[in-house]
Design goal:
Oligomer: single chain
Low-confidence stretches: 1-32
Structural class: alpha/beta
Mean pLDDT: 88
Distance between the termini: 61 Å
Order of helices and strands: HEHEHHEHHHHHHEHE
Strand order of the largest sheet: 3-2-4-1-5
Number of domains: 2
Number of helices: 11
Largest sheet: 5 strands, parallel
Length: 287
């Protein structure tokens, strides 16, 4: 019996010593670093006019809003970008950069002409000494409401999966009560809290569902009315990503992207698999 206890003690301390040795070895392994281009992929609602189906009430001309935006810009500028991309067509880059230079000459007043792109994007550019702003958007015709139209037309029937479509429409955060609670109080949140919520991973996933994937549950007879429109939105975001890749950049560059939340969500998916880019945690810069 004593021999058995002794043997067990030897084995115990032997394993413990081995584990400790292993832990020490693990501690001295240097952190693996890659040479991917760092990206702060920031999603927001549109401050000014938007044709989007979902809109947020926001007075971009109020002094209180400007004060909040200045503070948020300071937070995001801690990323120290060298390249800034906005939701604007590349063909307007000359116009955008003329406005940006005008802002740099008189930065005491935020430029509201391009909504969040100029209010936040220009101010971060100023704080980070960025020389040029790049538009990376692409426009394509797209019917956001084809699913609702089918569901609300008595003469039509959704022949694919009406139940899932309606759940994604009416209860998108059914399994995530904390996000649902914050969404329910959205109008009462400060601008900073709204932007934090916009950049929550679950909310970004929902942006893809809301703008595209829920349409995959919609169709008439054996048609693909929903999928066809979802494909257009996917295609648009692929072109946006391609426009990002047109910009000359090196491994030393740091890219700040400000776009509507749905585009941010798609770019997140593309960059997550990219051999070129590595996204930082946006929420770490909103504290």
């Amino acid at each position: 019996m004593k021999q058995t206890i002794l043997l067990l003690c030897i084995l115990f301390f032997s394993c413990k010593t081995e584990n400790k040795s292993h832990e020490l070895k693990m501690e001295i392994i240097p952190e693996q670093k890659n040479d991917k281009i760092k990206v702060l992929n920031f999603g927001t609602f549109h401050f000014g006019y938007t044709p989007d189906a979902n809109k947020t009430e926001f007075n971009e001309h109020s002094q209180e809003a400007h004060k909040e935006i200045r503070e948020i810009s300071k937070m995001l500028a801690e990323f120290k970008p060298t390249i800034i991309c906005i939701e604007n067509l590349p063909k307007f880059n000359d116009e955008i950069n003329k406005a940006y230079q005008g802002f740099l000459d008189n930065p005491s007043i935020l430029n509201t002409n391009y909504g969040e792109s100029s209010m936040i994007g220009f101010d971060i550019g100023r704080l980070s000494n960025v020389k040029k702003i790049y538009g990376i958007d692409n426009h394509m015709g797209y019917n956001y409401g084809v699913g609702d139209f089918i569901e609300n037309s008595p003469e039509l029937e959704n022949s694919i999966d009406s139940k899932t479509y309606l759940q994604l429409t009416n209860e998108p955060f059914k399994d995530y009560p904390e996000i649902a609670k914050r969404k329910a109080n959205y109008d009462k949140l400060s601008l900073l809290e709204k932007l934090k919520l916009s950049n929550e991973p679950l909310n970004l996933d929902n942006s893809i569902n809301t703008n595209a994937d829920k349409l995959l549950y919609v169709g008439i007879d054996d048609g693909f009315e929903g999928a066809d429109n979802a494909a257009i939105f996917y295609h648009r975001n692929m072109k946006i990503y391609s426009n990002l890749n047109r910009i000359p950049m090196t491994k030393k560059d740091r890219v700040f992207i400000i776009m509507g939340t749905a585009h941010t969500a798609f770019l997140r998916e593309f960059m997550r698999r990219s051999p070129k880019f590595e996204m930082v945690n946006t929420l770490e810069y909103l504290n």
